[in-house]
Amino acid sequence: MLQMNLIKKLKSSYEIRLSTDNRLICHNMGTKTIVYNFNSWEKIIELNKPKHPSQMRFSKNNDFLLIKSTTGTICVYDTSNFQLVKTIHPTGSFKIIEGNVNFTQDNLILDVIQTNNGQQIVSININTGDHTILTEFENPFTFIDYNHFVQNMSFHLFTLNYVNNETDYQENKIIKVNEPINKRSVSVEIISNPQKLIWDSVIYDSFNDFYILVDDYEIIVVDSAFKNVLKKKKFVNEDYPHEGTGYLWHIHIMNNCRFIVLTFSQSIFILRNEDLKTILVEKNPNLGHTFIFSEFTNDDQYLLVSTSENGYVLENSLLI
């Protein structure tokens, strides 16, 4: 797969996560999450809560594992003994939505909830379950997606999608939630979008100081002020046609920002960031199964690939 050495093939995997100290690796299946010792591949534990797991995250210090279900239930485990620390259930007044989630550097949970005024970003205490709403949007047609944590710059990147009340058109903006996050000092920046760009997903290149947007099958690079389009390129062309590509699931950038991996339901593309040239493509030969997730690990040593049929841990040959 992707011309990379296979380290481990797993069963069906929605996501695969490796702790930053490379000690633990986990993947989730239909009703459970399985944790292994990454060095020996000895199975440590099978976690049956929450049912129907989707997103997973290790905390920055690797002390906790967060598992979020497709219905918004969150379970946090202590990684020293895998005792359940806290279960956070969505309620009528606290509607956690399905979608990506992460820890802050102080082991708070950063997530999105649904309110009467649209979606809002919240921080959640893993010990008490208490939450603090960090944004104050007033448009009921506001939708927020968590994109990724930019480690070099210490901020969390979100996409704000909303309906403009004056035009009735959908518009996108960038939300940056800066670390540290606490009740006394929360820095949330909303970056305007004067060119009215729309995107399916976005990442930030901290080495070159620009945003990389994916809109349909096109890459758009925008400056850090979000005012100027620096370049555009369609990566689906006569060599890589739309047919058999599918819909976008995920975008990720290597920590050294040299390569970008795009996960579509039927194809995975790896692009060189410097010129956006497609250098590797993996097509799914089995249309009954789909690619779901692919990310480089924190040290860029491995590429983790999830499909509805199997999960793959690959040695990253792009570092050579």
List the helices and strands and how they pair.
Elements lengths: L4 E6 L5 E3 L5 E5 L4 E5 L5 E5 L5 E6 L5 E6 L4 E5 L5 E5 L6 E2 L5 E2 L4 E8 L2 E8 L5 E3 L8 E9 L4 E9 L6 E9 L8 E5 L9 E5 L4 E6 L2 E6 L5 E6 L13 E6 L5 E6 L2 E6 L4 E7 L7 E6 L5 E6 L3 E5 L5
Antiparallel strand pairs: 1-29, 2-3, 3-4, 4-5, 6-7, 7-8, 8-9, 10-12, 11-12, 12-13, 13-14, 15-16, 16-17, 17-18, 19-20, 20-21, 21-22, 23-24, 24-25, 25-26, 27-28, 28-29
Task: Write a structural description.
The protein is mainly beta. The chain has one domain: Methylamine Dehydrogenase, Chain H, CATH 2.130.10. 0% of the residues lie in helices and 52% in strands. It starts with a strand and ends in a 5-residue tail after the last strand.
In brief:
With 320 residues, the chain is an all-beta fold.
Record keyword descriptors for this entry.
Methylamine Dehydrogenase, Chain H; mainly beta; four-stranded antiparallel beta sheet; 320 residues; five-stranded antiparallel beta sheet; single chain; 0% helix
Total domain count: 1
Mean pLDDT: 93
Q: List segments where confidence is low: pLDDT < 50 over at least 5 consecutive residues.
A: none
The arrangement of helices and strands along the chain is EEEEEEEEEEEEEEEEEEEEEEEEEEEEE
What gyration radius follows from the Cα positions, in whole Å? 19 Å
User: β content, as a range?
Assistant: over 45%
The helix fraction, in percent, is under 10%
The number of helical segments is: 0
Question: What would the principal axes of the Cα set say about the shape?
Answer: globular
CATH class: Mainly Beta
Query: What is the CATH H-level superfamily?
Result: YVTN repeat-like/Quinoprotein amine dehydrogenase
* First-residue to last-residue Cα separation: 17 Å
Q: How many strands, what sense, and barrel or not for the largest sheet?
A: 5 strands, antiparallel
CATH topology: the name is Methylamine Dehydrogenase, Chain H
Helix-and-strand structural type? mainly beta
CATH architecture classification: 7 Propeller
Number of strand elements: 29
